[in-house]
Amino acid sequence: MEKKYSKKHLWIEMDGETAIIGISDFLQEKLGDIMFINLPEPGEQVKIDERFGDVESKKTVMDMESIVSGEVMKVNEDVVDEPYLINDAPNESWLIKVKADEVADNLMDEAAYAKHISQPWMQSHKE
Amino acid sequence: MSDFYYLISGEMNPYRNLALEQEMMDHIKGDEAILYLWQNEDTIVVGRNQDIYNECKADKFLDDGGRLARRLSGGGAVYHDSGNLNYSLISRSVQGDCRYDRLLKKALLLIGIEAVYNDRNDLTVEGKKVSGNAVYEKDGIICQHGTVLVDTDISRMEYYLTPDISKLYRNRVNSVRARVANLCDFCREVMVQDVQESLIETAKAKPFEYRPDIEKVNGLEKFYMSNEWIFGGKR
Questions:
Q1: A5 pairs with which residues across the strands?
Q2: Which of A34-38, A104-108, B60-64, B174-178 shows the lowest mean pLDDT across its residues?
Q3: A105: region left, alpha or beta (phi > 0 left; psi from -120 to 50 alpha)
Q4: Radius of gyration of chain B (CA)
Q5: CA A51, B100, B193, B205 torsion: positive or negative?
Q6: CA–CA separation, B223 vs B235, rounded Å?
Q7: B14-24 and B214-225 are packed helices; what angle lies between their axes, rounded to 10 degrees?
Q8: How far apart are CA B37 and CA B10, in angstroms?
Q9: pTM to 2 decimal places
C-alpha cells in the first residue's frame, strides 16, 4: 500500500475505507527516544486537524492532530506498551486504524514529502 | 533576532498559571517569542505521563495544604513554592536566542552565577541542580519551560517528593533524585525578582500586551483542576 504524508509528519495508508495512521521516520528521529504514547480508545471519533493523542520523548511532549475524520476501529496496543517500537520501525508501527469518513486533502506522496523534509529549516533538530 | 515579549503572572495558583501558559500559545505571531514568568504557592507538579502516587506523598501533601497539578510537558515531578521561579519560553522555533538554555545561562551569569548544563540537561551550579526543564509542542508552537530554585524550601521538597520509590509501572516516566540547591546558596542576596529582571534584560523583552481569551482560559483551568487529569492523566 502506498503511504501519504501530512505536513506534521504522520503517515497514512488506505485499506479500502480503513485509514491506517503512523508517525514518519523523520518525526521519530526528531523526537528521539519515545517513552510514552497516548492514543484514543476504539469507538472514539477523531476529526481532521483535531488532537487525537500525544507522544512523549526524551525531549518533548507533542500533540498529534488527525488527518482523517471517522471512528477509531483499532488501536495498536503493542506501541502503547512498547513505544520504542516506533523508533525501531516507524513505517510498520501503526498507531490507529480509523473507519474514514473523510481524509485531509493536503497530503503528500513519498516524493513530495521527501522534498518537504529536505528544506533547511526542517533540518534544525540535527544541529 | 526574535522579538521578545515578557509577562509576569500575578497569580500563585498552578491551575490558572498552567491555563494562561497554554492559552498564550495561541498568540504567537511570526518569529515572536513570549517569556512568561510565574510562580506557584506550595505545589507539586508531575509530568504528563507520571504516576502521581509514585512521585510524591500525594495524600499527605494535600492534607498538609499543598496542591497537586499535572503539566502537559514530560519529565519528572517538581516542587514549587514562592522561592521558585518558573519560566516559559513560547515560540515557533527553538533556533538562535529562542533557546531556554542559552537564555537562562546568560541571565544567571548577569547576576554573577556561573551555571552549566549536565548530561541530563539540568542546569547545575557546582554540580548541584538549580533548574529543570521540559518541552511541550502543539501545532508547531513550542513551549519550553522550567523551574529556577532561588530560595525554595528544599527540605519540604525532599520530604514530599519520592523519586526513590518511583517504580517502573508500564512505561510511566520516573523521576530521578538529583542533588539540588538554591541560587541563594551561591549568591546570598539573590531574590526571585532579580532572576526575573535578569531574564527580561537578557532577552531584551518588551512587555507583552494581549487579550487572553478568558473563556478559554477558564475552560483550561477547569481541565487542569480536574481529578481525571491530575490523578489519571486523562485529557
A1: A11, A108
A2: B174-178
A3: alpha
A4: 17
A5: negative
A6: 8
A7: 130
A8: 9
A9: 0.92
Domains defined along chain B, listed by start: 4-215 (3.30.930.10)
Q: A108 and A80 in contact (C-beta within 8 Å)? A: no
Cβ-defined contact of B139 to A65 (cutoff 8 Å): yes
Cα–Cα–Cα angle for B49, B51, B52, nearest 5°?
115
Range of the domain at A96: 4-126
Which CATH number fits the domain that encloses residue A48? 2.40.50.100
pLDDT average, residue stretch B148-173:
80
ipTM for this prediction? 0.88
Number of structural domains (chain A) is 1
Compute φ and ψ for A81, nearest 5 degrees: -75, -35
pLDDT in tens, B94-120: 877 778 888 999 999 999 999 999 888
Tell me how close the Cα of B117 comes to any Cα of chain A, in angstroms.
15
Instruction: Tell me the pLDDT tens digit for each residue of A51-81.
Output: 999 999 988 999 999 999 999 999 999 999 9
Report the C-alpha gap between A43 and B27 in whole angstroms.
Answer: 34
* Residues of A within an 8 Å Cβ radius of B: 8, 35-36, 38, 51, 54, 56-57, 59-63, 65, 81-83, 124
How far out from the chain centre does Cα A20 lie?
A: 9
CB B148 within 8 A of CB B199: no
**Residue A124 is nearest to which of B95, B135, B136, comparing CB atoms?**
B95
Show residues of chain B in contact with A36, CB under 8 Å: 48-49, 74, 171-173
Q: Residue A16 class from Cβ within 10 Å (0-12 exposed, 13-18 middle, 19+ buried)? A: exposed
- What would the mean pLDDT of B200-228 be, rounded to a whole number? 97
Q: What is the 3-state secondary structure (H, E, C) of B79-144?
A: EECCCEEEEEEEECCCCCCCCHHHHHHHHHHHCCCCCEECCCCCEEECCEEEECEEEEEECCEEEE
Return the residue matching grid coordinates 528544599: B154
